[in-house]
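Good morning,

Both structures are done.
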Amino acid sequence: RVKVEDAHTVIYGYAAGLDMTRRDLQLVARDKGRPWDLGKDIEEGSVCSEIMPMEGVVIENGAIALEVNGDTQQSSNVDKLIWNIREIIADLSLFYHLQPGDLIYTGTPEGVGAVLPGDRITGRVEGVAEVALQVGPAE
């Protein structure tokens, strides 16, 4: 288990990532009182940029943004996350054995919305990286 004050010891680096959700599946599960797993566990539903090595660094401030087709949909700051980086790591370590290579997605600011096939999505984390993708056709 990792204590909040020791969280920096398990950080290798940072990346910009997009973790998509199938709201249609998530909402059906929610309405039936079931787990939302299927809405999050989707093939090719998560991407990330190259990892920028920043060993032992805890990012406490920095812009995070998401654009869809060039229009800003989300714009916030790391300091506005519900739980800070240290707290996220400590909490996850209560339930999982964190291992080198594990990726932790921190969550998103307000402004989530639907995307459509053909949409171009770009996510940015200030001082870290940018990741972009084009939404493919539904299968």
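Second structure follows.
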Amino acid sequence: MSHTHHAFFHSRQQLLFAFSSLYVLGLILSHATLPPVHVWIIAAFFSVAMNFTYMIEAAYVGRWLRFEVVIAATLITASILGVLIHPLFAIAAIFAHGLWDIGKHRGAGVPFVSWYTLGCFVVDVTYSTVLLIYWVQTG
């Protein structure tokens, strides 16, 4: 279904900001309150969740959906492999999503609001770096 008006999140930026804030808060609270044994499950969960925003936007505007689904499916698969095989898959998926945010900021895929792509880049790179440090320290 193609829509000719503003994209879904472009016209609902307050909602996007609220969900983004809750996402970051949930991420912090999950790691702060759950036992360390759950670190990689939490990372995979939030990594999977972050991949739906751009697919929703692409589905709403009726363009770039296949492309966004391929990117998201790749990152979601890597996130799950982070739990099943090795944590570096989840770390790489989160970092790669940050790179994808920069790509989106530069015009790749479905157009998206720049404050979100840049903010998501910062969160993804920071989170993947913290996870990498945690993995190195805990082996």
